[in-house]
Amino acid sequence: MKHVLCSYCGYPHLDRDWFSVHPHRRHLCAGCGKHFIDTEPGIGNPIMGMRDVCDLPEHTITPSVRSLKIRQADFPGGIQIWGSNPAFLWTSNRTEEAGIHVHAYGEDSEEPEVDETYGQVTIDGTDLDPHMVRVFMAQSALSSLKGRILSIECPACSAPQFSVGEHAFTPTTTHTCSRCGENLSVSGRFRKTIANPLSAILLCLAKTAVREPQQHDMGLVPETL
To answer: I need a labelling partner for 39 at 20 to 30 A (CA). Which of 143, 153, 185, 186 fits?
Structure first.
């Protein structure tokens, strides 16, 4: 990511959707509507300019060593989970922790009874992987990936598949099993898909949820070139 300015009008450029996870040189300015070429492949985000102005040193991020085992039935007010990502600005004296942040509410509580970041989280006997949670959050924010994030198991060895790196944001027609190396394809609505076991895990947890899981539409639209 970098601070990109339109070479024609100087408007700060913000890349969205597919372009927010794939570095490129050719950009479409939201200010003047012209295409312009940057000096190097990158992803435009004006907030990077603010980071440069603040000139803060890089802070330390360490995995959380806490673990949490809870049941949904014990928190009738609901549970919220999200993967922790590095803070844009961090001024605390404490070291930033990476993991899964959890809010769990009692029946009538406005403040969560559980409010912490954990390295290991188990809900109703189901383990959640912090990496999968963090990636799934980013995937859910990309409108171009809607309906393409699937839970995929290898037919040869039954290993659940998890697309990582660029494959986590670039749908493909075939997947290579991370355990046995078998090539596998998925039939369904979309020919190109991405594997993340968390999609099936969340559906399974929804069956025993005290409250029906909320569906959030962030109103993001794909960026066109």
So the answer is: 143
